[in-house]
Design a protein that fits this description.
Helix content: 25-40%
Structural class: alpha+beta
Strand order of the largest sheet: 3-1-2-5-4-6
Strand content: 25-35%
Number of strands: 6
Shape: elongated
């Protein structure tokens, strides 16, 4: 099961990254940047839905209801407009984080077997259909996604992170 969390109101990290992409890295075609934290959860036993409910009600570790919303097994996306394309960047740490499942299970009354998280960035950029989508994807990746020096890249540090970059399906 995957839980996607996102900010209820203004996501200041996404706003800052968006401004930096436009103003510092020259990505003038950026229309929207969204950020999500994805949590991959595996519960021991039956009724994962009930266990997830208990986890979310008894712990603010994964979702803080005062500032975050979530969706289960469904990415929150926006409609891709005419003259636009979407790019999804899944960012994972090369060295996996260790979570104290024993304490989390004890405090939440659940049987969580494994927990893993990663970051997802959705970029929506203007697309003129003169270039191929693959060429635009490569250019955006070089310009703002993969950090290669102080003037190229922002979202992924290849020293400590690995990225999966793909086009967002217009119907999703």
């Amino acid at each position: 099961m995957i839980l996607y969390t996102y900010q209820k109101n203004i996501d200041l990290q996404a706003m800052s990254a968006s401004e930096s992409m436009k103003n510092d890295l020259g990505l003038e075609t950026l229309n929207k940047l969204s950020r999500f934290v994805a949590w991959e959860l595996e519960f021991d036993g039956e009724d994962e839905t009930l266990q997830l409910k208990n986890l979310l009600e008894n712990s603010f570790f994964i979702v803080n209801p005062n500032k975050e919303l979530y969706k289960v097994n469904e990415m929150p996306t926006r409609t891709i407009r005419n003259g636009e394309m979407g790019i999804r960047v899944k960012v994972e740490q090369k060295i996996s984080q260790q979570f104290d499942l024993e304490t989390l299970n004890k405090n939440s009354g659940v049987k969580l077997k494994s927990l893993r998280n990663f970051l997802i960035w959705d970029l929506y950029v203007s697309y003129d259909e003169i270039s191929s989508k693959e060429d635009v994807l490569k250019a955006v990746t070089r310009q703002v996604i993969i950090t290669t020096n102080s003037s190229k890249g922002l979202l992924v540090n290849p020293v400590s992170e690995r990225a999966t970059i793909s086009l967002i399906n217009p119907t999703s």
